[in-house]
TrEMBL record:
Pfam families for this protein: DPBB_1 (PF03330), Glyco_hydro_9 (PF00759)
Biased composition (Low complexity): 85-128, 243-255, 274-290, 792-812, 984-1008
Active-site residue numbers: 698, 741, 750
Family of the protein in this entry: Belongs to the glycosyl hydrolase 9 (cellulase E) family.
Organism lineage: Eukaryota, Metazoa, Chordata, Tunicata, Appendicularia
Name of the protein described by the UniProt record: Endoglucanase
Catalytic activity: Endohydrolysis of (1->4)-beta-D-glucosidic linkages in cellulose, lichenin and cereal beta-D-glucans
Length: 1236
């Protein structure tokens, strides 16, 4: 039996060696391509070793045949030119279509000549050289300009592989062109020289073009020399002719090149005279009344299986420089009206979205400190899912907020396109939303399958560093009929429909594509109705959806507006009525689309009903409470985002047709909210704009220093950002207009794509309104498109027309349960290694915890010295699995001093710096066996990791110790391996449900929770249940928090804590106290100097995981021993609050704002234990329980309906206090003069 390896690369198919002389009677795939190894390709088994007659490889887009003594020929798409077979039989010829860097689909073609026993005919070197080099110019290899650049080289599966990018400097008009590439080493079996020839459509060129390909070489260090040949070049010139060289004995392989014109420079970087803008003084031309389309919307192209992007590195950051924003300054007359240069605001907001880009950045990338990243996204399901935006200061691609941000941005460009044009930013604005719209098309991988998220949020948030240097696995999460998500799918349909309307005139083909996808996604959302909280369970910790019906109505409204089809008008109106869209709360966010749906339906239909609903909403929103300086205040999480969103809706009402009665009032409100963000109160809240702008946004990428300096958790709280994140709107001040510019305060300084979406549209809308006649609102053609009704629900529960759901690449689970490798300490990889110490086997009874011999560690050179073992990643340990590492330790000595032992893992990569991950720590006393155990997982790519070593270390070097009973077990040990059947890629952990904030101070990750602590503090059962988790730091002073307290004791203003949502109990634990003990710091740090600390619960932490705590600065400093702000392990429990946390010796309660005898809200104060209930009694009536607050806060509500009544407060301890109220006074605090 022989194997014929075939290499699949972006440049086509290469035989790995000369064609084997063996007949092919049957073929089987010996090693199919996977998401991580494209270069290894397919190995086709040849059953009989007789002469090869034919080899045939069938794939989706092409067929390859290699037959005896014939030139192989590939079936090409109809639009692709077949290679002409003119090669002499004595040579081996290959014709390959290389992929242009921005081409969406690529035909791969290879012509391979089978090896024969006929002697080869050689050609005269001199004559071949003359033929090959006539009319040629040797190019200088300059990245992004000319020649061929080898950007990445790696060794995989026994082969040297590389990725090459070429640029041809076309000057004028050229024909009969070809490219000759000479490599310094043989490229597979192709020799050292290639000829690249044109396709049928690009034989004549008049502009620069580029191309790229993936190939493999016989050795590393690949370099290339390139000649550009075409009619008109004088080959005799010494300046351009190539040196005479011996030609290979066979003709060079010929490869056909698909070309793509090089992208034009960004409009921002062109001279003003070249910008395609509408002058502010010139009224735009009237657009055509209607546009239509005759496309068949029933035929749609989905994201096909592709692994071309999986063999390259996940990121690329070669050089960095500061962003230099340019914009067209507004006139003095305009600024006098708008108060600020809104051209600058719009331009810099667009730059913020460019800084959030994931994927391969375009050549005209303006954010120079960013590079390519997320280049392997989708590899776990065999799809190219590169692109889209990173959500905030993290690197997860959350589908729901990204789609809403895209819809809202697109809406603003549709409404106020003339304002963008007048600002000189229209083309940049289109590119801004096209980036994500194209990504959503990629996410539509089958008729009833849509990718909702890329990245595990929990793992992502444990990383602080550059996007380009991420190493964690980024799993894919899919919505399908079996895992519905009407909210995220409906919102994506709305975005694509809005994009269709925006691009209808300038790019009707693209508009049709967007609309076709929107139609099918609407059907998926409508036919399988459910929120996505179950499909992606941990999404509730980040972006929990509180309903999906508004997204369905929002989608149908946009589809009707984008099509103008009366059938869809009926659908949109039915959704609006059936889903109660007219009944809306005050919020307009990524989770609440009711206000937006009202406005879109009004703009699409001009129906007064929708005008009434929209006006009612805005009137209600304007009554919302405001800060002393005028910002409308909804909640503490990103208040400026909420203010901008509501102002954008007010702007829609102000610009509505027909004009609403309060239009002027709505506009004044909208402009005031915009000006607040831009600096009307004395400081700007937009990074890089105005007076005293924020300098410390909570954003990983911009916080990282220039390479080669390291970026890690030290940057999470260290001073002004090295790179200015131009245009980003921060979360903003609290309800008293107080704001601290600190990266550690992620509530005030978080930035996110959904923060800027309505804000940018608001700036454009205000500019448009104040430009008057020079800005026509909704300056676009009205569509008139016959769009078919949405597809019906499949009778089988899931569409049979779709391919099976992809199997997640990391679905296999390690079920091993193994001991650490035993053996002598000095034997290196054969067992234990004594790192900086002396190790020996001891068999004394006291030295064996398990009844066998133990291992003694002595003569240690430092606290870091101790035993260690190496593990092979991909063999001993598998990615994506949790492991329990355990060892028993017996310190030596006659004292009784407890000392800390820690277990850590060091991950050494094939390139780049190693990563340290803590596993566990424990206090151990001499002559006692103590268990050291913790859990850890390794979310890295197997091919990136060189070695994993687990260390045991920690006590002073003078301390000797013995270890025994070491083991490393998978948490799945003893369980059957998970079946890798077709299913949705598994679920992850997304973002804060309140808004778009998340765990802000996460360090090098660990999932360890099995920490042991023998401190007497935790042996006191009366103190309550012991909790274990991570502690972080989040604020210097309390601001009322989600508990809503009006005041605090002096002790509470210093020592306070926020609980994770699951443990906050919707506010019921407000006012309780917790006792905290730090158990372990990160590698290289510790909290040994820390002290047991008590803090009061005043807030919730939506992004914290169960068991975690967010501490005040003072509480962190005390419990950690003044360690730098980071994330440490801790144990904690609820206790009775000490007296110093009470404001008075007696019990008080607060009657909240807005209370009366008809609606009473009571908040207890100064209680040392948890409040169980509050009851009310009128006159001689019975006691009735008051209802605990229905929104996240801390109060009980009732309706006494009389002026005088009694209240009874009862603690969980059973103690009660009764107090008589003679009159309800809102916003008052009452001292009962009693004690519990």
């Amino acid at each position: 039996m022989k194997l014929l390896p075939i290499l699949l690369g972006s440049s086509g198919i290469f035989a790995q060696n000369e064609t084997t002389q063996a007949a092919l009677e049957s073929t089987t795939v010996e090693k199919p391509c996977n998401s991580e190894n494209i270069g290894s390709g397919l190995e086709i088994k040849l059953e009989n070793e007789t002469e090869v007659e034919e080899i045939q490889l069938q794939m989706e887009d092409f067929t390859l045949k290699a037959a005896k003594n014939e030139t192989a020929e590939m079936a090409l798409p109809e639009t692709t030119q077949k290679p002409v077979k003119t090669t002499p039989k004595s040579t081996t010829t290959k014709t390959t279509t290389t992929r242009a860097t921005t081409t969406t689909t690529t035909a791969k073609t290879t012509t391979t000549k089978a090896t024969t026993t006929t002697a080869k005919t050689t050609t005269s070197a001199a004559s071949t050289e003359d033929s090959a080099r006539s009319n040629c110019k040797k190019l200088k290899n300059v990245d992004n300009q000319s020649g061929l650049i080898i950007r990445a080289q790696w060794f995989d599966k026994g082969a040297h592989q590389f990725n090459a990018f070429g640029w041809m400097p076309v000057s004028g008009r050229v024909s009969n062109w070809k490219i000759i590439v000479e490599f310094n080493t043989a490229i597979s079996d192709d020799g050292k020289t290639w000829e690249l020839l044109p396709m049928s459509y690009n034989k004549v060129l008049d502009s620069k073009f580029n191309f790229d390909f993936l190939a493999k070489a016989e050795s590393g260090g690949v370099k290339a020399t390139t000649w550009w040949c075409h009619d008109g070049i004088n080959g005799g010139s010494s300046a351009t002719s190539s040196p005479a060289k011996a030609q290979p004995t066979k003709a060079p392989p010929q490869k056909h090149v698909q070309t793509k014109p090089a992208p034009k420079p960004s409009i921002i970087n062109r001279p003003t005279s070249e910008k395609t803008t509408t002058s502010p003084s010139t009224k735009p031309a009237n657009p055509p009344k209607t546009v239509s389309s005759d496309v068949d919307f029933g035929k749609i192209s989905y994201n096909k299986a592709s692994k071309d992007h999986c063999s390259r590195a996940g990121g690329n950051l070669k050089s960095q420089s500061a962003t230099k924003p340019t914009f067209k300054k507004a006139s003095k007359e305009e600024v006098a009206k708008t108060k600020y240069d809104l051209n600058e605001v719009i331009a810099k907001s667009i730059l913020f979205y460019e800084a959030q880009r994931s994927g391969e950045l375009p050549e005209d990338n303006r954010v120079k400190w960013r590079g390519d990243s997320g280049l392997n996204d989708g590899c776990d399901i065999g799809r190219d899912l590169t692109g889209g935006w990173y959500d905030a200061g993290d690197y997860v691609k959350f589908g729901l907020p990204m789609a809403w941000s895209t819809t809202t941005l697109t809406w603003g460009i549709i409404e106020y396109g003339d304002a963008y044009k007048a600002a000189g930013e229209y083309e940049n604005a289109l590119a801004q939303v096209k980036w994500t719209l194209d990504y959503f098309v990629k996410c539509h991988i089958a008729k009833d399958q849509f990718v909702a998220q890329i990245g595990n949020a929990k793992k992502d948030h444990e990383y602080w560093g550059r996007a380009e240097e991420m190493r964690m696995n980024r799993p894919t999460y899919i919505i399908s009929p079996k895992n519905p998500g009407s909210d995220v799918v409906g919102e994506s349909a709305a975005a694509l429909a809005a994009g269709s309307l925006l691009f209808r005139e300038s790019n009707p083909k693209l508009a049709d594509e967007y609309l076709a996808h929107a139609r099918e996604l609407y059907a998926l959302a409508k036919n399988y109705q459910k929120d996505y909280n179950s499909a992606i369970p941990m999404i509730t910790e980040f972006y929990k959806s509180w309903g999906y019906k508004d997204e369905i109505a929002w989608a149908s409204a946009w589809i009707y507006r984008a099509s103008g089809d009366s059938k869809w008008k009926a659908i949109a109106e039915r959704d609006y009525n059936n889903f109660g869209i007219q009944y809306s709360g005050v919020e307009s966010t990524w989770d609440s689309k009711k206000p937006g749906t009202m406005a879109v339906m009004l703009q699409a239909t001009k129906n007064p009903k929708y005008a009434t609903h929209l006006a009612k909403y805005v009137d209600s929103a304007l009554r919302q409470r405001k800060t002393p300086k005028g910002m409308i205040y909804v909640q503490k999480w990103a208040p400026l985002r909420h203010a901008s969103n509501i102002a954008f809706m007010a702007l829609q009402a102000a610009m509505a047709e027909p004009k609403l009665p309060k239009a002027s009032q709505y506009f004044q409100f909208a402009q005031k909210q915009l000006n607040y963000a831009l600096g009307s109160t004395g400081r700007s809240y937009v990074v890089g704009f105005g007076k005293s702008p924020p300098k410390e946004p909570h954003h990983r990428g911009s916080s990282c220093p220039a390479k080669p300096k390291t970026c890690d958790w030290a940057q999470s709280g260290r001073g002004p950002a090295p790179w200015v994140l131009f245009g980003a709107l921060v979360g903003g001040p609290n309800e008293q207009d107080r704001y601290t510019d600190s990266r550690k305060d992620y509530i005030a300084n978080e930035v996110a794509t959904d923060y800027n979406a309505a804000f940018q549209g608001l700036a454009a809308g205000v500019k448009c309104k104040l430009l008057g006649g020079d800005c026509t609102v909704r300056n676009y053609a009205r569509p008139s498109i016959d769009l078919p009704l949405p597809p019906a629900k499949s009778s089988h529960g899931s569409s049979s027309s779709s391919a099976p759901l992809p199997t997640k690449a990391t679905a296999s689970k390690d079920t091993s349960a193994q001991e650490f490798k035993n053996g002598d300490f000095e034997n290196g990889h054969h067992g234990w290694i004594c790192n900086g110490c002396k190790g020996s086997r001891v068999a004394f009874p006291w030295a064996a915890q398990s009844g066998k011999a133990g291992y003694k560690v002595e003569s240690r050179l430092g606290a870091w010295a101790g035993p260690a073992q190496d593990f092979v990643f991909g063999k001993d340990l598998l990615p994506g699995n949790d492991y329990i590492a355990e060892v028993y330790i017996r310190p030596q000595g006659n004292d009784q001093k407890a000392e800390k032992f820690i277990m850590t893992a060091n991950i050494e990569f094939k390139s780049g710096k190693p990563v340290w991950k803590p596993i566990a720590s424990v206090q151990a006393r001499p002559k006692q066996w103590t268990r050291l155990s913790g859990t850890i997982s390794f979310d890295y790519k197997v091919q990136d990791v060189k070695n994993i070593r687990i260390y045991i270390e920690g006590p002073p070097p003078s301390r000797s110790f013995v270890i025994d009973s070491a083991s490393l077990k998978s948490v799945h040990a003893g369980k059957a391996p998970a079946k890798t059947t077709a299913r949705p890629a598994q679920k992850t952990t997304p973002k804060p449900m309140k808004t778009t904030t998340k765990p802000k101070t996460k360090p090098t990750a660990t999932t360890a929770r099995n920490w042991s602590n023998n401190s007497p503090l935790w042996q006191n059962a009366s103190g309550g249940k012991l909790h274990k988790g991570d502690i972080t730091v989040y604020a210097e002073k309390p601001d009322g928090g989600n508990c809503g307290y009006p005041k605090f004791s002096d002790e509470t203003t210093k020592y306070f804590v926020a609980l994770p949502k699951p443990m906050w109990e919707k506010g019921a634990n407000c006012g309780r106290c917790v006792e905290i003990d730090c158990t372990a710091g990160n590698v290289g740090t510790n909290c040994d100097a820390g002290k047991t600390t008590v803090a009061m619960v005043v807030d919730s932490c939506p992004e914290c995981h169960e068991g975690d705590l967010d501490l005040s600065n003072a509480a962190w400093d005390k419990v950690s021993g003044n360690a730098g702000h980071s994330r440490f392990k801790a144990n904690w429990k609820f206790i009775e609050c000490p007296d110093r946390f009470m404001m008075k010796d007696t019990f008080e309660f607060h009657i909240k704002e807005g209370s009366s005898k008809w609606w009473l809200a009571v908040m207890p104060l100064n209680h040392k234990h948890k409040m169980k209930s509050i009851e009310i009694k009128k006159g001689d009536g019975a006691w009735k329980s008051m209802e605990f607050g229905t929104i996240d806060s801390f109060y009980w509500k009732g309706a006494p309906q009389v002026d005088s009544f009694e209240l009874r407060f009862t603690l969980v301890t059973g103690q009660s206090i009764t107090h008589k109220v003679s009159e309800v006074v809102a916003s008052s605090t009452i001292d009962t003069k009693k004690k519990f």
